[in-house]
Amino acid sequence: MKKMKVAIVGYGGMGGWHAKKLLESDVAELAGIYDIDPARCELAEKNGIHAYASFEEVLADTSVELITIATPNDVHEELAIAAMNAGKNVISEKPVTITLESLERMIAASERNGVRFSVHQNRRWDADFLAIKKICDSGELGKTISIESRVHGSRGIPGDWRAQKKCGGGMLYDWGIHLIDQILMIFGFAPKRVNCICDYITNSECDDGFRLDIYFESGVRASVEVGTYNFINLPRWYLRAKQGTACMQDWKTPVDIVKCDKWQELNVTPVETAAGLTKTMAPRNEYTTDNYQVEIEPSDVHDYYRNFIRAIRGEEEQLITHDQMRMDLKVILAAFRSAKTGAIVEIE
């Protein structure tokens, strides 16, 4: 199969990541990059990558079939529509854009020009997420009651456009979009309501952290948390289900599982605390629970480009659909409204 030529617009952190992956790809070939910063174009040339002189030159290159946009969030729409109007298929870095109206204009441009349009939800291929999703899907712990998904750091928002509101900065748009998309992949793209609190600890302009509860019709509650002022991290995943608990400390460690085989336990020995006794919080013994680990399995992030390029060629369905993009963005916008009003917000 002939490799598809891809150009990248934006050669910052994620643009450089895309370039590295495309140079390793079995389905795509990196045609070059363009960045408005001449220094980044010079860096690309030093790295042996062709740098286009202008965005217009990228659009004029008839050998390029696909353009990946890795720029600040507020210009995704402008660049994507220009590229699609030029007959190019487009991948936008996440978040796809920052308003629903903007997203609808991008989808309309895709349909009008007969080209494919996607968003780079690469963390659907994170091994930790896939391990938790497999446990939920298998039903080995019974019906899920609640799930916690979080990432913690202690460095605040990166000191670039991600800290600027006008550029679509903040953690809901940055990490939130990933964690929300993962939750919806597990429990379905039909959440009912959300409740959100945002942090403004290191930045008064954009949220530098948040706690978001997502409620589903099934009764499942998902808690999504991003913190950038945490010097001790809580577990990456914590799952409660009818028949046990699963806990994953970070994205590299195995999943610890305690499965409750027998609910009733006779002759429970109380635990003595500093000021009293408790049977309620006494630990379980080995006769009522089964303790084991689930190893994480490697995944291949190249599957994202493989799927999208095959979808462009009509060989398979596009994994990340326009409706999924809409719902991811609806949840984020509802979260912002909830944080502003202090109320639970229904998802339309």
Total helix count?
9
What radius of gyration results from the CA coordinates?
23 Å
Strand content: 25-35%
- End-to-end Cα distance, whole Å, is 43 Å
Helix content: 25-40%
Q: Could you give the order of strands across the largest sheet?
A: 15-12-11-10-6-9-8-7-16
Main sheet? 9 strands, mixed
Order of helices and strands: EHEHHEHEHEHEHEEEEEEEEEHHE
Number of beta-strand segments: 16
Mean pLDDT: 96
Helix-strand makeup class: alpha/beta
The low-confidence parts are none
Q: Name the overall outline.
A: elongated
Would you write up a description of this structure?
The protein has 348 residues and is an alpha/beta fold. 31% of the residues lie in helices and 26% in strands. It is built from 9 helices and 16 strands. The strands form 3 sheets. A 9-stranded mixed sheet has the order 15-12-11-10-6-9-8-7-16. A hairpin with a 4-residue loop joins strand 8 and strand 9. The longest helix is centred in the C-terminal third of the chain and has 20 residues, at 322-341. The model has no long low-confidence stretch (mean pLDDT 96).
